[in-house]
Amino acid sequence: MSAIGATRGENVTADGVIALLENGRILTTPVLRAAVSRLAPPMDTVASYHFGWIDQTGRPAVGDGGKAVRPALALLTAEAAGAPAETGIPGAVAVELVHNFSLLHDDLIDGDEQRRHRDTVWKVHGPAQAILVGDALFALANEVLLEQGTPEAGRATRRLTAATRKLIDGQAQDITFEHLERVTVQECLDMEGNKTGSLLACAASIGAVLGGASEADADALEEYGYHLGLAFQAVDDLLGIWGDPASTGKQTWSDLRQRKKSLPVVAALAAGGPASERLGELLAADAKNPENDAFNEEEFAMRAALIEEAGGREWTSQEARRQYATAVAALDKMDMPEEINRKLVGLADFVVVREK
């Protein structure tokens, strides 16, 4: 069962969206692999393991490379600007490099030992390699764009670096929130807009920029991507508490284990009522004793039940739908082929109706 239910089924079918994602992966992966091969040993090997191209022993592997939403957006929006999809490939690769830079660092910061059903880089190769490879991927992203040597590449790089700064801002906010008793819903939305919305906004505009789109059209696509990112993160927050580990590749109650002030938690705290008050008492005790990690499964299940009873789960589901609607509405600000519009709406459907 999906995280929030169906959206607009009259658009591109689920199979059509899967085909879009796979096409983006096919076009992007060879260029991405060539870029990663520039890294000095052992960083090239470590990065290849992270991307799922090899296993821990260095043998070729067919791993789960993620959903590939960002590359698909970069290629589609190049077409929205009237350029061939291939025009967006450098942007797609650059955004994927930045995204994976953030994953490498996030896994280490959060202490996550699993990603995509395999051990994370820091667990296999050590924290130092996770930091260094992440840094190298970020530098490589800018290199891939700037070596195009065009004015459009310069415009695209400015958007990418701004998005990366906001992404890092969001990660810093997220860490800070873990040690606070209370965070407002707006503060949480601002954090998630930085941490997730900024890079999806960049992915949704960077292909168009490379294709010669005006700033106004690129801004409209960026708005679509930003709100799509907030919808994506709202669903992620639901899966971070109630997702099936067999689908998500993470532990049960993963966000509760990390004391994350995600949207369901923050919305539940703001709701008032007995369940909200009890949850607030538990989180206040956590803040006074942050090193306490002696919780058992029953404790996490109880906290998840309190969040749901207080309305945090339903509010977050509704917020995902609100952000989805705002994202889709932004597409009307740009004149693009109807087929591309439908595909972008279909991608938005896919983002908010998923189980992992």
TrEMBL record:
Example GO BP: isoprenoid biosynthetic process
Coiled coil spans: none
GO MF term list: (2E,6E)-farnesyl diphosphate synthase activity; metal ion binding
Keywords: Magnesium, Metal-binding, Transferase
Cross-referenced InterPro entries: Isoprenoid_synthase_dom_sf, Polyprenyl_synt, Polyprenyl_synt_CS
The keyword Metal-binding is assigned to this record: yes
Protein name (Swiss-Prot/TrEMBL): (2E,6E)-farnesyl diphosphate synthase
Record's keyword annotation contains Heme: no
Protein origin, superkingdom: Bacteria
Family: Belongs to the FPP/GGPP synthase family.
